[in-house]
Amino acid sequence: RHGRAEADVLLTAGAAEAFVLLARALRPRRAVVVHPQFTEPEAALRAAGHPVDRVLLPAPAFRLDPATVPEDADLVVVGNPTNPTSVLHPARDLARLARPGRVLVVDEAFADCVPGEPESLAGRTDLPGLVVLRSLTKTWGLAGLRAGYLLAAPGLTARLADAQPLWSVSTPALAATEACCAPAALAEAEAWARSLAADRAALADVLTAAGLRVTPGAAASFLLVRADGGDRLRERLRERGIAVRRGDTFPGLGPDWLRVAVRDRGTSLRLARTLAELR
Asked: 184-278 belongs to which homologous superfamily?
């Protein structure tokens, strides 16, 4: 799938297990998590007794500036594209974070939302301390199956494997992993990513027309938006049978922020009509 050696790969029970393995196997002096992003990496580190510093990317663009990451950080976690912002950081900026003595964890759970995956680091073996996490459950709707993997240098994958519970990856998950990495599946995912881009642009237009402020440069299967009174708007949408993700549980965001999944054009039009009625 990525042109990597077998020893570079560790299968996991979803990408979330990889966060726990990293927290258990490593002993960082200064762990840094780049936010806003998925909260489980920080939760896993804190549960393992590691203090965590945060780098908060500024709105509205939420773009990574490598210079904002402390030089003495020996563990850095960043998402690409990031949940919940949907922002895709350039590979060159992520590569600038890698250095000897540091573990750089790049969560690429939503990377296959991007046609051609041009900013993925999954195939890189030249960056010291790089760990790339991948999920097979997002594109294929397999969240309950728990299927994912990580890519790293052999010595690090061996350390993480030693921290892994026995039989953590089920036989159905193994079968799904093999199937989802087959050429036909990769071609299907690429076609889906291209259609997703069109649906995402249409949804962004709908939300902008409704007066919501859409985070620019979205690349994943959702949009992060800001709305005055967003917490109340979320409740009113729920009353109409439409669920959007609250943003205030993500560090760096507040109650006015919402994450909206990209759906088909018909669903987006229904959302547009409902927003017009509510606002």
From this structure: Aspartate Aminotransferase, domain 1 (3.90.1150.10)
245, β-bridge pairs: 259
Token pair of 121 as six digits: 């680091």
**276 Cα distance to chain centroid:** 31
CATH number corresponding to 6-182: 3.40.640.10
Are 186 and 112 contacting, i.e. CB atoms less than 8 angstroms apart?
Answer: no
Distance CA 127, CA 100 (A): 9
Name the CA radius of gyration of the chain, rounded. 19
- Which residue in this structure is represented by tokens 């965590």? 52
Pairing mode, if any, of strands 213-214 and 222-226?
antiparallel
Q: What pLDDT, on a 0 to 100 scale, did the predictor assign at position 247?
A: 97
DSSP-derived secondary structure for 21-88: HHHHH---SSEEEEESS-SHHHHHHHHTT--EEEEEPPTTT----GGGS-TT-SEEEEESSPTTT-B-
Q: What is the pTM of this model?
A: 0.95
| pLDDT interval class at 156 (50, 70, 90) | very high
Residues of the chain with CATH 3.40.640.10: 6-182
